[in-house]
From TrEMBL:
This is DUF3597 domain-containing protein. The lineage of its organism: Bacteria, Pseudomonadati, Pseudomonadota, Betaproteobacteria, Burkholderiales. Residues 12-61 are annotated as: Disordered. It comes from the Bacteria. InterPro entries: DUF3597. Transmembrane segments: none annotated. Residues 13-22, 30-59 have a biased composition (Low complexity).
């Protein structure tokens, strides 16, 4: 699982449920020719009935990222500044925040700057993660997207 995927999984309740469903569909497809026809029908049925209710629930019911992270921070023994620090954000959601992890996250998100300049990379990563959260169903305050 990607680093960003781990962050999503800890902030979006439906993210974990959606991941096992994706592998389930491709597995029946390679079984044979006959399952290919039901496979075409299955995604259509899933998209209409199964995925439609699940996807809008996750998309329409936007997760308030600020409220979620503030709640996590309130119950955390460490005082973490998730609003400006990618290191603290990663720690808050229970992830490793090592330089290696952050460099992998930078690769996932397409960072083209100097990874030796960790301050610049970290600031870019925080903004990029907030934008990705916003793009994928999170409600992120405007001041965290700038």
């Amino acid at each position: 699982m990607s680093i960003l995927g781990k962050i999503f999984g800890r902030l979006f309740p439906g993210a974990r449920a959606q991941q096992p469903q994706a592998p389930a569909s491709p597995q029946p497809a390679p079984s044979g020719s006959a399952p290919q026809q039901p496979q075409t029908q299955a995604p259509a049925g899933t998209a209409s009935a199964g995925t439609a209710p699940a996807a809008p629930a996750a998309t329409m019911e936007r997760v308030d990222i600020e409220k979620t992270l503030d709640g996590m921070a309130a119950s955390n023994a460490q005082k973490l500044n998730w609003r400006t620090s990618i290191v603290d954000l990663m720690k808050l959601v229970g992830m490793e925040s090592t330089l290696q992890e952050r460099r992998e996250l930078a690769d996932e998100l397409g960072y083209h700057g100097d990874k030796q300049d960790t301050a610049a990379m970290n600031m870019w990563l925080h903004k990029a993660v907030m934008k990705k959260l916003e793009e994928n169903g999170g409600k992120v305050p405007a001041n965290l997207l700038d």
